[in-house]
Specification:
heterotrimer; A alpha+beta (about 150); B alpha+beta (about 140); C mainly alpha (about 475); A: about 150 residues; alpha+beta; Ubiquitin Conjugating Enzyme; C: about 475 residues; mainly alpha; Herpes Virus-1; three-stranded antiparallel beta sheet; two-stranded antiparallel sheet; about 45% helix; rod-shaped; ubl conjugation pathway (chain A); EC 2.3.2.23 (chain A); E2 ubiquitin-conjugating enzyme (chain A); UBQ-conjugating_AS (chain A)
Chain lengths: ~150, ~140, ~475
């Protein structure tokens, strides 16, 4: 089973010219399966945290979006307890012109700007809307507890 | 086909179970939605009609280890059942007597497993096996 | 990281070995409408030596998958945004973006549907569009020919590079090279064996000749069984008796260990390590280490030189990286994306936001469906208005009629009044005449002294009636 050239080129670039604050390394036994880390963006409650994710490029990639999930527990209205992410470019708004790189950047941007109006984790979103101060405090605590 | 990693396969199975896209005669779901490793699952099987299992609902636990789906999950009945492939002391489904487990393939899923167990209940010699009264459970130790 | 890069290199080599039907003339993918997107996912041959190009079909049908080519250098601007390789049979959208034909058509079958992958504009496309259709053109069409020419002219390496072919040439000539001239392209060996069967083994062109290249013979040095195909490999890597004399120490070593000997032989002549900085000295390694290196000024300075060189290389690398980043940013901007700047918003989306506040641009955003609906509503309103207009004119008419009637009514009233006045004056006259008559009669009765009751009662009745 060989890898489409596009995946080879994307991987080469991710390794040789990484995005600041993001790493993505393919598994040795499955080059479509990546270990990803994203640093919490500065100015967000996730600042100082290092978040682990996993990413898989399905057979039909790039016609279908990559599958991504947080492995580190995170308090965020658009990320559920199993680490699943609610992000338009991962679902309906995927386009084959997007790349692993751009997706990871979008996830990083999601950490900077949570969107409680389109929630995946309902309790978190409620808290975010009713008591944002407290929600941000919890997010900061979780970052210290789980994302070090 | 490339090999889908364990976690993404389990997420797919979970989504199928959550959305109720699977068969109606069985269901499954995560025991704990905070379990980021997605190891422990609950399953139910609706007893097949025209058998001594008719109208009974059997609960099971399914444990998908780190090597799932290369290796089959560990399946255990909670509801008491009289079936040759189920250990009568622990409720464990015995791989040696249940081909779906002994010749497990990575393309199988928990749904296939539950449906195969249901088929096993409805198969010729097992269909009319006398069953313990409803509501009894196996004792874990 | 290095391990990964190596692995990727290995994979890249492997992908060269795969084939899939391609060729517009020589270069366009064939059968692309039916094949899935994964153009590289063809099982590779199992033997590790086979990564290269094999001719198993007739010459005309020889398929070459252009996607497996290795380019000498890839200008980012000529890459398809989908497969990220130089365009193959490029097609352009009405929104001005260009993709490989296979890639954009495959996108149309994906969940994104008939939309531009870069700005998500709806694209109208039908493979077999009829001239009779209302809209008989597609929203994607072949890119300007100059683009195909530029991409077809990109320099590529031979698909047999891993077998030793050093050829580099323009992409349009790769097929010509592989089929007609590359010595490393493999063909089935056509020699008839003793048992009457065809040999059939895939063999590089350079070994094909009058004799079957798979016929075994004894190695002239060691006597082991070899054939023409394996001879080179055997002599270089396996044969223990293929001696090679060292120019320095005059001793003989088997070829397979010769390279390692050369690297440590004390007598062999080498150049001064300071040669890159200008030292012309040449001599045996022994003398170098014992005498020259302690005297040579260039060697003493080499540490400094190396430091300078390393710094310079760092700067060159940094420069290269910055250049590539600038080019990606420029690329993103021209393609209408801003994703690489850390935002997932597309430029068009940002513009849309501005646009929505500008009413004159409102219609730009309308979908055809909405437009039709609006048109229908407009028609309904128009008929309503017409009906109201006719009703209004009717009402005007009625109003005139009513005024006319009112006027007439006043006239009639006046007349009636006149009549009443006339009537009452006549009654007064009659009453006066009656009174006059009664008086006359009573006078007459008095005069005749004979009362006549009957007559008076009838006249009284008459007075009552009036």
């Amino acid at each position: 089973m060989s890898l489409p050239k596009r995946i080879i080129r994307e991987t080469e670039r991710l390794v040789s010219d990484p995005v600041p604050g993001i790493t993505a390394v393919p598994h040795e036994d499955n080059l479509r399966y990546f270990n990803v880390t994203i640093d919490g963006p500065s100015g967000s409650p996730y600042e100082g945290g290092k978040f682990k994710l996993e990413l898989f490029l399905p057979d039909d990639y790039p016609m279908l979006a990559p599958k991504v999930r947080f492995l580190t527990k995170i308090y965020h209205p658009n990320i559920d307890r199993l680490g699943r992410i609610c992000l338009d470019v991962l679902k309906a708004n995927w386009s084959p012109a997007l790349q692993v790189r751009t997706i990871l950047l979008s996830i990083q941007a999601l950490l900077s700007s949570p969107n409680p109006d389109d929630p995946l984790a309902n309790e978190v979103a409620e808290e975010w809307k009713s008591n944002e101060q407290n929600a941000i405090k919890t997010a900061r605590e979780w970052t210290e507890r789980f994302a070090q | 086909m490339s090999k889908i990693p364990r976690n993404f396969k389990l997420l797919e199975e979970l989504e199928k179970g959550e959305k109720g896209l699977g068969a109606e005669s069985c269901s499954y779901g995560l025991q704990d939605l905070d379990d980021i490793t997605m190891t422990h699952w609950n399953g139910t099987i609706l007893g097949p009609p025209n058998s001594s299992h008719e109208n009974r609902i059997y609960s099971l636990t399914i444990e998908c280890g780190p090597e799932y789906p290369e290796k089959p999950p560990i399946v255990r009945f909670i509801s008491k059942i009289n079936l040759p492939c189920v250990d009568q002391n622990t409720g464990l489904v015995l791989a040696s007597k249940f081909p779906t487990l002994s010749s497990w393939k990575r393309t199988y899923s928990m749904e296939i497993l539950l449906l195969e167990l249901r088929k096993e209940m409805a198969s010729g010699p097992n269909r009319k096996l006398p069953q313990p009264p409803e509501g009894e459970t196996f004792q874990f130790h | 990281m290095d391990a990964i890069a190596q692995e990727l290199d290995q994979l890249e080599l492997e992908t060269r070995g795969q084939q899939e039907a391609t060729g517009r003339g020589l270069l366009t993918p064939q059968g692309e409408t039916s094949s899935a997107w994964k153009p590289d996912n063809v099982p590779i041959a199992s033997s590790p030596n086979s990564s290269g190009y094999d001719m198993t079909d007739s010459l005309d049908e020889a398929p070459i998958d252009l996607r497996t080519l290795v380019y000498v250098s890839i200008p980012e601007h000529l890459n398809c945004p989908i497969c990220q390789l130089p365009f193959i049979n490029p097609y352009t959208t009405i929104c001005g973006h260009t993709f490989c034909r296979t890639c954009i058509l495959e996108t149309f079958k994906s969940p994104l549907g008939n939309k531009c992958p870069l700005d998500r504009i709806e694209l109208n496309y039908k493979e077999d569009r009829q001239e009779t259709e209302e809209k008989n053109y597609n929203d994607i069409f072949p890119a300007p020919i100059i683009l195909s020419n530029i991409t077809d002219d990109l320099q590529v390496r031979c698909l047999n590079a891993s077998r030793g072919c050093k050829w580099i040439g323009p992409r349009w000539s790769i097929k010509q090279h592989l089929v007609n001239s590359c010595d490393h392209t493999r063909f089935p060996c056509e020699h008839i064996l003793d048992q009457g069967q065809v040999c059939g083994q895939l063999t590089e062109r350079r070994f094909l000749g009058e004799k079957c290249p798979h016929e075994l013979f004894d190695c002239a040095k060691c006597g082991e069984k070899i054939n023409i195909v394996t001879e080179e490999h055997h002599l270089k890597n396996e044969c223990t008796k293929n001696f090679h004399k060292c120019n320095g120490c005059n001793l003989e070593f088997p070829e397979k260990t010769f390279d390692s000997h050369e690297s440590y032989c004390e007598k062999i002549h080498v150049r001064c390590p300071g040669k890159q900085y200008g030292c012309e000295w040449r001599g045996s390694r022994e003398v170098l280490s014992q005498i020259h290196s302690s005297e040579c000024v260039f060697v003493k300075l080499s540490g400094y030189f190396e430091l300078q060189e390393a710094k310079m290389n760092d700067l060159v690398d940094e420069n290269k990286m910055l250049k590539s980043q600038i080019s990606t940013i420029l690329d993103s901007i021209t393609q209408g994306k801003m994703t690489n700047l850390g935002y997932s918003l597309q430029l068009e989306e940002i513009m849309d936001r501005d646009r929505s506040t500008d009413p004159s641009r409102l219609f730009d955003n309308l979908q055809e469906k909405d437009y039709i609906q609006l048109m229908m509503e407009f028609e309904v309103l128009k008929t309503d208005l017409n009906r109201l207009r006719s009703l209004a004119s009717e009402f005007e008419l009625n109003k005139q009629l009513v005024t006319a009637l009112a006027n007439e009514n006043i006239q009639i009233k006046d007349e009636l009044h006149n009549q009443t006045a006339a009537l009452s004056s006549m009654r007064q006259q009659i009453q006066f005449m009656l009174l006059d008559r009664r008086r006359l009669r009573s006078k007459l009765i008095d005069a005749e002294a004979a009362p006549q009751p009957k007559e008076s009662s009838s006249s009284g009745r008459f007075t009552n009636k009036l």
